[in-house]
Write a structure and sequence with these properties.
- Pfam families: PIN7 (PF18475).
- With 253 residues, the protein is α/β, with parallel strands linked by helices.
- The chain has 3 domains: 117 residues, Rossmann fold (3-Layer(aba) Sandwich); 65 residues, no CATH class; 55 residues.
- It has a 5-stranded parallel sheet, covered by helices on one side.
- The longest helix is centred in the middle third of the chain and has 29 residues.
- It is elongated, with a radius of gyration of 28 Å.
- The model has no long low-confidence stretch (mean pLDDT 87).
Length: 253
């Protein structure tokens, strides 16, 4: 088990969800003036149960919390046996106590880290697989909602990047996803409005042709788009109304 000391005066993680409650013992050390903690952080701390302690500095003073951290570290490592020790702080003053612990062989592995995210995970591969699986589940949930809307009112689907981001973020609000994860999910789903069955094959052909062309060769005005489609579908017997409908599906932003 890893012993984690967090110098909260120096580093303020938003959550500890990244860490497994079964593999980590958390000691959150807060300063005398730090009376309030974020709800998300408290919720993640609760997951650790007995493997979590909050140490509060009773009085403000220069390096007061640092001395308390060192004292608690000595007491806890004497009381319990740990495989490794990590102090989460940007204060390099802790490097000397880390070196001392290693020299005296009080613990096998010890290190000061600038961020909670830098704690090495022995089962990182399984964590990555679990995260990938979760993203796949989320993407499936999003696509399911998109398909439902597509059957009722395709035009009500969000079409712009920001509106798609807001829509997905709202749909998965309870998951507290990071911005990069929401953007990744948007790339995993298809927001394209449902197309009339009778024109779908024509739309797919035109899209495939456009994708084979360099962006600079794409028609960007209504007249050139219409003429391009008329030329492309010459011989298919499409009327002006159908050409116009295909143009709206393909080129509408």
């Amino acid at each position: 088990m890893k012993l984690i000391f967090i110098d909260y005066e120096n580093v303020q993680p938003k959550t500890l969800d990244y860490l497994s409650p079964n593999d980590h013992f958390i000691v959150l050390c807060i300063g005398e003036n730090q009376k309030l903690l974020p709800v998300m952080l408290i919720k993640s701390l609760m997951m650790f149960g007995q493997n979590c302690r909050i140490i509060e500095c009773p009085k403000a003073g220069k390096n007061a919390l640092d001395f308390i951290i060192v004292d608690e570290m000595a007491r806890i490592t004497t009381e319990f046996q740990f495989d490794s020790l990590y102090i989460i702080s940007k204060d390099k003053g802790f490097d000397s106590i880390i070196h001392y612990y290693l020299t005296k062989e009080r613990i096998k592995q010890a290190e000061r880290l600038d961020s909670i995210d830098h704690i090495p995970q022995a089962n990182q591969h399984s964590i990555d697989n679990r995260q990938t699986k979760n993203m796949t589940v989320f993407a499936s949930k999003i696509q399911e909602q998109i398909d439902k809307i597509n059957k009722i009112s395709p035009k009500s689907l969000p079409s712009k990047p920001q509106s798609q981001f807001n829509w997905v973020n709202s749909l998965l609000k309870a998951e507290n996803l990071a911005e990069k994860d929401v953007k990744s999910l948007i790339k995993m789903v298809d927001f394209s409005p449902a197309q009339p069955t009778k024109l779908k094959s024509y739309v797919d052909r035109a899209k495939a042709k456009l994708n084979s062309l360099e962006k600079r060769h794409h028609p960007n005005k209504l007249e050139t788009q219409t003429n391009w489609l008329k030329s492309f579908f010459r011989g298919d017997g499409l009327n002006t109304s159908q050409i116009s409908e295909i143009r709206q599906i393909i080129f509408s932003k």
